[in-house]
Amino acid sequence: MKRFLLLLLCLSPPVAAHEVHTQIDVAEAVVIKLTYANGEPFAYEKYALTAAGRQTPQQVGNTDAAGRIVFLPGQQEKWQLSAVSADGHGVSQEITVPTRGAPSKAAAPMQPRWLIAFSGFTLIFGLFGLWQLFLRRKR
Fold it and tell me: Exposure pattern of 82-121 as b/e (b: 16+ CB <10 Å)?
């Protein structure tokens, strides 16, 4: 019996249950770069990309050190991007992937925070000043 098992073991084909194959292809990918408002990269944060009209995400993962997400969209043009950091910052928006050969569009540059705050204060104090002039004229 031992000889039979030894013969059977020697004649059995090699088993590759834990083998992983690698294939490297070159394809056109889409790169999405996420940054915080101060320009720092949205690095190592969780994201999910879902094709339009679907419920299950096509791709999930973490952004890289530069805050980038790289994916192959295939024929799908509209995607829903959801990315959230551990402290609650994040984005949830629809992404339209440009067709091949179309110029890519960069996000509109953000105004500096100080300029936005200054504009807000100016608007508030300007309206308050107009209101005071209106009240003085009534008297």
Answer: ebebeeeeeeeeebebeeeeeeeeeeeeeeeeeeeeeeee
pTM of the model as a whole: 0.61
pLDDT at 125: 87
Residue 115's pLDDT is what? Answer: 84
DSSP 73-125: -TT--EEEEEEE-TTS-EEEEEEEPPPTTSPP-PPPPPPPHHHHHHHHHHHHH
Q: What is the distance between the alpha carbons of residues 97 and 77, in angstroms, rounded to a whole number?
A: 5
What are the residue ranges in the chain where pLDDT is below 70?
A: 4-18, 100-110
